[in-house]
Amino acid sequence: MTALVTGATGFIGGNLARALWQRGEKVHALVRPGANDIAIRGTGVQQFAGDLLDMDSLHRAAEGCDSVFHCAAVYAFWSRRPEGIYAANVQGTRNVIETALKVGMRRAVFTSSVSTIGWPDAPGKANEETPVNPKLLVGHYKRSKFQAEQEALTANEKGLPVIVVNSCAPVGKWDVKPNPTGRIPLDFARGRIPGYMDTGMNLVDVDDVAEGHILAMERGRPGQRYILGNRNLTLLQVFRMLADITGRRVPRFRFPYPLILGAAYVDQWIQGAIMGQTPRIPVEGIRVARHPMYVTSQKAVEELGMPQNSVEIALEKAVRWFADHGYIGTRS
């Protein structure tokens, strides 16, 4: 198999590209010029300079590939140009689908997000069938991913079998940027967590997410969605795990939601509007975190055989990777 991986310099895409290469697969990676390629540097992954919005470069990268893992996306809860999020996430997905059809690929896996999963009406865990109300999708990232997922699913009607995987909150190695979830173990290890919010998430080892992508390509049913997650945890539980790993204290103070949201608006005004920098406390991120997103990955485990490795070990791997690559004690 020769697979194209978009977003191969990112967190999920980088781990996926490495996993495919380590299995002996031939891998093409679409890499934006100037991107930090440390996640795939020194591997046999063949890099093609290009961009999701550049059809010629997409075609060059896709030539000779029989499948595509479309992992590339703008994962951000703040942007000075929100239209850029939609261009990359929605139009970029259309372009990947069009390219895959043109070169005659046999199969595709689209990396979506747990953000596109609906909230259950009654207390409990959401699954792939929980309906989502698009009006309740908070922020540009969630809305763009929902639209992109719809684009991916309609490709099945055009003759390209597409499987959607909805990743939960991944942690582990090769979080180069790092992503919003990865900032949790990073900031905790730096001692920059003064308190916590009463919220929660579904945490998963990024290695399991990468394996889930490969299993979806091999065993997934076209037109189906598979939640790639593991354990539902409160943020305080995650901090307790990180305390055991790092030796730092668990934050004592639980900040009420209105206080955090107010601080986020102030931070976004100062950092974003005035200084032109990414806010440390993005308003969209706080609004998303107000409701814990607890889900079940039973479908992915039963149909695909997705592994469920220890999230404590995943957090430990994340902290160790950040330490080994000089992130702890820096301002990255």
UniProtKB/TrEMBL annotation:
Gene Ontology molecular functions: aldehyde dehydrogenase (NAD+) activity
GO cellular component labels: cytoplasm
Protein name: Dihydroflavonol 4-reductase
Stored PANTHER family: NAD(P)-BINDING DOMAIN-CONTAINING PROTEIN-RELATED, PROTEIN YEEZ
Highest taxon listed in the record's lineage: Eukaryota
Pfam families: Epimerase (PF01370)
UniProt domain Ketoreductase: residue ranges: 1-174
SUPFAM superfamilies membership: NAD(P)-binding Rossmann-fold domains
Matches recorded under InterPro entries: Epimerase_deHydtase, Hopanoid-assoc_sugar_epimerase, KR_dom, NAD(P)-bd_dom_sf, NAD(P)-dependent_oxidoreduct
